Amino acid sequence: MKVRTRIPPSPTGIPHIGNTRTALFNYLFTKAQGGELILRIEDTDRARFVPEAEKAIVEILEWLGIKYSPKVERQSERLEIYKQHAEILKNKKLAYTDQGALRYRMPKTGSTKWTDAIGNKDITFENKTQEDFVIIKSDGFPTYNFANVVDDHLMDITHVLRGEEFISSTPKHIQLYRAFGWELPVFAHLPVILGNDHQKLSKRHGAKSALDYRDEGYLKDALLNYMVLLGWNPGGDREIMSINEMIQIFDLKDINTTSPIFDSLKLTWMNQEYIQKKTDAELKDLLVEYYSDLKALQSDVFDKIIPLVKTRIKTLAEFKELTEIFFINSINWDLIDQEMEIAKSTLTDLKELRDWNKDKLFAIMKVHMERKKIKMKVFYKMFTGRERGLPLPETLEILGREKTINILESLIK
RNA sequence: GGCCCGUUCGUCUAGUGGUCUAGGACGCGGGGCUUUCAUCCCCGAAAUCAUGGGUUCGACUCCCAUACGGGUCACCA
Length: 413
What we know:
mainly alpha; Rossmann fold; 3-stranded parallel β-sheet
């Protein structure tokens, strides 16, 4: 039997990174099994419905390369189906009307159990602890608990990979399957990702979305790689992996049972790793895509900057500040007396310099450093306004004679 | 509070009865390289494997209890 899974977001906002990780696991599992993944919009909550949410959901999956079947299902378009199925339960006296809503009558004796694929463990709930739950709301829309089960069956879902927060509602789902005489899918409840506060990731606690990370200059490969390591480990010391490598070795049995804490520091480190692994051309493309205004930079200048920048940025967003000197058109820093003196004599040297290249430029600086017993920092401050940055001689070589001399002249007068 | 799940360095984790005086990664500290800052390289600190009982010739690994943490108790998903 072919594996079929689903990504069932509810369009109540932009999904945060925890939800996206669940989508990723669904994708990896499905690809590894040669199955099919569908996207099903669970828009049954009219009060919290956010029109733009679906667009963001699709955008995230697209950016990350999480592919699913072309036909997107929407529960709001399937109301008739839920109504029919509710009717069946009502006729069987398994559901009853309660204040305009339809409730499912849960059995009150015995127990409901299943073997969860995560950790391969049996989970049992005593039925006496379960309450009758609403399946059709008074507004005519189905609840998650109902629509989810009906759709999973009708759409031939074989594996339900979802967050651990759904464990306690799984007995409801199982009873519904039984009431209809349907076969159970495999349930796999992923441990939820916790934030720094050790609480479940949530918008309220500042959980970001994949789109936020993209906007902050993170690469999709890095985000994907970091996310997958949160709760999944193929064994051994392997950490850096491409999505295709993940698919090759992905197995539900390697998913942990403990809730991991999201460590943005390690994500940032990983992002830097990925940036460094990119070729110059690839990094250039990423930067052009990230910044809308890089066209202003001359292509040959841009090409020369890339290798200098590569080991110095952890996110694409850091590019601008680091390369500021190539974009500025006015000087906004001052020199103190000693620096001024050095600036003047350096300027003289620069004007006389025949070959404008990094070695000659560095030679000039070296002379001054030795004569005045100063450190390189002084030159960084002088030419860029900052005490650190891209290698100076290289930077000035790329900047060119005219612009470099301009900087010193405007500082001196 | 009831019910459910979990517990190895600060964090992500390896580990499936003896190879563990517990390995890797991030972060942190120190050093090297060096034109600043990075990158890179080397070294180091960091877990009495939550605690207490079992089982066993032998437990991080199996069982039980306790503690702690998390999830969930909606006409939200």
